[in-house]
């Protein structure tokens, strides 16, 4: 699932790139206000590498009034460990709509977990926070999925990243045989759904499929009784945001997702230690 861009290289290369093109991109963004940013949007981290891309998982606001998009942390490599796992107020890592790089940056990476750490030392925290630029419009409606809220699981098992007491949106979906929790996901394969068969510390395994480039993409909880995506409803589905695409593994099922509970809990814990964290208190936008 990994389409990574080296942030060590980005820091130097993008400094030159932005010096040359930053004014043009900013002017374009101001000239075309209202560009929609939505779940399922494919993003790239350099305008000249559109084939190295990831996907937006959720769009909304944080408790400090900032406009935020969430994707997978492993989408960026940081060989020098200079930028990973810290707030990045500098605009050194722009994010582009893969299908409209000429617009200029839609936002800037403000935080990501080290990609090596995400699979070794921090398996529960593989996420990225992007602060969106003022010229874009937030949308809850992706190509297939409408995110209605953050998933809340009253009484569920807390995320391992949660403070005490945990909030309801920091609790995990069950995966036992008597649970029928399903994810509905969106990516290059279209829209797919499948039961969660395993929950390992807030990392879900499901039969809902994905492929390379879908990392960071959206997963919603299938609300019991709601319609599954089908030709009858033009393959649309709606539900609370439940997580983002993480990886494919050797086991069955091979499709793995980072729960929204893990991300939200880690944001709150980091903000409690250092108030002002980008993305803290994230809420999915209710803009259509």
What does this structure look like?
With 288 residues, this protein is of the alpha+beta class. The protein has two domains: 5-138, Thrombin, subunit H (Beta Barrel), CATH 2.40.10; 145-262, Thrombin, subunit H (Beta Barrel). Helices cover 15% and strands 31% of the residues. The protein is built from three helices and 19 strands. The chain has helices at 7-31, 115-119, 260-273; strands at residues 5-6, 35-37, 42-44, 53-55, 58-61, 67-71, 76-77, 94-97, 107-112, 128-132, 136-138, 145-150, 182-187, 190-200, 203-206, 218-221, 237-248, 255-259, 283-284. The strands form four sheets. It has an eight-stranded antiparallel sheet with strand order 4-3-8-9-10-6-5-19, with no helix packed on it. A six-stranded antiparallel β-barrel has the order 13-14-15-18-17-16. Strand 3 (42-44) and strand 4 (53-55) form a beta hairpin. The protein is globular and about 50 Å long. The chain starts with a strand and ends with a strand.
Radius of gyration equals 18 Å
How far the N terminus sits from the C terminus, by CA atoms, comes to: 29 Å
Q: Which word captures the global form?
A: globular
What is the total number of structural domains? 2
Topology:
Layout: E1 5-6, H1 7-31, E2 35-37, E3 42-44, E4 53-55, E5 58-61, E6 67-71, E7 76-77, E8 94-97, E9 107-112, H2 115-119, E10 128-132, E11 136-138, E12 145-150, E13 182-187, E14 190-200, E15 203-206, E16 218-221, E17 237-248, E18 255-259, H3 260-273, E19 283-284
Parallel strand pairs: 1-7, 2-11, 12-17
Antiparallel strand pairs: 3-4, 3-8, 5-6, 5-19, 6-10, 8-9, 9-10, 13-14, 13-16, 14-15, 15-18, 16-17, 17-18
